[in-house]
Amino acid sequence: MSSNSSLFSSIENDLNVLTRNLNNLVNTNNPLLSSATEYLFLAGGKRLRPAIVLLVSKATMGKQELRASHLRLAEISEILHTASLVHDDVLDDSILRRGVPSVHNGFGTKIAVLAGDFLFAQSSWYLANLDSLEVVKLISKVIIDFAEGEIRQGLNEYNSKLSIEEYLEKSFYKTASLIAASTKSAAILSQVAPSIAEDLYHYGRHLGLAFQIVDDILDFTSSTETLGKPASSDLIKGNLTAPVLFALQKNPTLSILIQRRFSESTDFEQAISIVKKTKGIEKARDLAMEHAQVAIECLHNLPNSESTQALKQLVEYVLERIY
Fold first, then answer.
1. What CATH number does residue 108 fall under?
2. According to the model, what pLDDT value does residue 99 have?
3. Which one, of 87, 189, 71, lies nearest residue 134 by Cα?
4. Structural domains of the chain, count
5. What is the average per-residue pLDDT within 87-102?
């Protein structure tokens, strides 16, 4: 399987331009706010969301050149994603992001909140200038979904009765909504048939869910250095993810530990042990694979091309992160 850099080889130049443009796109006259937003983009990241937008754009445009609106949509998707991460880190009081101190640790909570708000506002401005009402509606709904996802997560902290279905709904709002709306929007800008655009929406939805489930598995199986943030941070904060929910179905003791918020000295280590012994991680992996398979099936009406193949391989790449 290829690395993500080779997967994106056909759009490498476009991604390089995007990276250079991001700081200019969020430029502000306020020096402190500019420093905070610049810090965000210098921290790097996989640029997964804009890469998906560019690949879908190429797959649906055939031999035609990408439009300026495709490139701007890719930039908007990354700005929106980054804005959501800033607010996530404030709400979760996360120490690290992408291996470096989170924005609120470096600049303070007020500046971090304002930086996130500023990025949301900037993305909305660029979105309005795409001159596509359908795309504006799709991407604007993502901002609502981000808030819905955070509210649901907050209301369900340490809720051992949370169902897998409720977990997937929250995961859609927080992660998959942006990917789904971006893939459909790229197709709309290519002026493809509505059925193709809808297929690509579902591709993004299921890819996004698979990606989130894999991330939740990695929270149990990877180190802090690999994750770029503290390992097992979700569970300790009461955010119950797929591995935990599957483990709860097998061992009721885990529910007791969660409900008392790991107040005893050995509670947290015992909870991790239960998740691993009950094969909660393996069950979560199966769930990720189910969504990945559906994502690939959603591409069957696209013409065969290098970009279409890259979209399929991207699904495999997401899964291979857990092996």
1. 1.10.600.10
2. 64
3. 189
4. 1
5. 77
